[in-house]
Structure formats: structure tokens, C-alpha cells
Amino acid sequence: MGKLEELIEAASEAIINSTLTLALTGAGISVESGIPDFRSAGGLWSKFDPAEYATIEAFRSDPEKVWKMLTEMDKVVSAARPNPAHIALGELERMGYLHYIITQNIDNLHQEGGSRNVIEYHGNSSTLSCLWCGKNYRASDKRDTIPPRCDCGKILKPDVVFFGEPIPADALNRSFQLASSAQVLMVIGTSAVVSPANTIPTIAKQNRAKIIEINMERTHLSDTITDIFLQGKAGEIVPALVQAVKRKGGGSPLM
Ligand code: APR
Fold this sequence. Notes:
Elements: H1 3-16, E1 21-25, H2 44-47, H3 50-53, H4 56-61, H5 63-79, H6 84-94, E2 100-103, H7 109-112, E3 118-120, E4 123-129, E5 136-138, E6 157-160, H8 169-179, E7 184-188, H9 200-206, E8 210-215, E9 228-231, H10 234-249
């Protein structure tokens, strides 16, 4: 058995023996669905400076300009479908071995991949809101005009969290509460550089959770708090891990 297979076996053991397992996911889990991540070479922030395009101030002062970046994002997100990593996490939840996903992604792919307990830190791009009159719309109903406008005439904002905006309070509170009692935290496809999402692994570790990290490359977590580092594509590693849990853990811990 190779080194990676051994690590996957150890990770599956930890998941099988855990009564509260969480997954913190980032853009890397959706790259194989065709959505570029932010900070890898060629990522979104190499085309659009986040300071100019991804802050709430930038949106308020020049929404047309920000919609240039949002339109590019919307094109790839609306065409994206769940990949084997999203689907495997949905299966792990159905088997009773994964309890919540805390995601930084706005692409709705966890839900479309079958996961039900999904806490969205940065919102979801499938709905839009008017900052002036508060009216809400489905993004799919407003693709005919760019930038999309409210019936009141103002330019609409996607229900995603821009830099400078707060994380939804219920997402923050629920995730901190869960992280403080988790026994296993999977950290999948995130550089873990953006706060406060990147405090979740530290909170879990401080409460003696086992940290299983899945990433194409090492991050600042890998040599500090990660217990098991599984290097590779999420679309390959996550299904292999779920297969190992299924093979050794049987149907569900509830049986
Ligand atoms: N499989 C596994 N990991 C991958 C893959 C893949 N196929 N492709 C890329 N990665 C890894 C990269 O190595 C990197 O560590 O995913 C991580 C993506 O990191 P970022 O691009 O920084 O994305 P993320 O961590 O989600 O960013 C957090 O920053 O800009 C804000 O709001 C934005 O939610 C985002 C937040």
C-alpha cells in the first residue's frame, strides 16, 4: 500500500470513530467543476484585483465596474455542476459520517451535490438583492441585462459577502459552536488565508479535533495543525476517502 493510501486509511478510521465530523471547504473543491479558484496561478484575483472589484465600497461606488468581474464569475458558476468531491461529501452525510459543511464558496454546488447541512460563510450567488429597496430576485431571472437592475431602477447586488461586509451572524455562531466540539475537521481546497473562516481549523484543533487536510499543495496549516495531509485533487481524494469509510465503516454509524 502506498503512502497516500495509508493516509487515506488513517483518515477513514478517524471519520468512522468520530461522533461530530465537519468539513471546511474553499474554492479548490470546485476547480474540477470549472470554477477557477482565487489565489492559484490564473485564479480570479490574478485577473481582477479584489481591492478594486470585491469590496462593498467598490460595489457602492462603481457597481457597473464590479459587475464586469461578477459577470465572469456568474458565467462559470452557472455552467458548473457538482464534481465527484461534492457528491462524495453528500454521500458521507447520508451515511451519517459527516454532520456539517462550512463552505466559503458561493456556487451552491454542495447543495446540488446532495449535501443538506451546509453553512455558507460568504453567501450564495444564486439570488440578488436591491440595496436601496430590499427587493430580492433569482439570479437566473435577471441574466438578460448586465448589470441586472431592480424594478426600482437601481443595480442589484448578488447575495454574496464582499470584503468589508460581515459574515452572516448565524453562520458565524453555528460554525464556531460546531468547531469547538468537533472530533474531526476535514479542510478541503482552501488556502485558509481569509478570516474568519480560517479560524475554524484553529478552534477545532484547540478542542482536540483531528484535522484532515485535502489540497493540491501544502498550506500554512499543513505543517502546523494538520494531522493528516492528503495531497491531490479533491475530485479524486474525497471519493477515495468516502470509499474507504464505506468499506470499513459499513453503511452508517447509527447501525
Ligand atoms: N483540489 C484540491 N485543492 C485545490 C484544487 C483541487 N482540484 N485546486 C486548487 N486547490 C487548492 C489551492 O492549492 C488553494 O490552496 O485550493 C485552494 C484555493 O485557495 P483560494 O484560491 O485562496 O480560495 P479560498 O481559500 O476558498 O479563498 C477564501 O477568499 O477571496 C476570498 O471570498 C473568497 O471565499 C474566498 C476566500
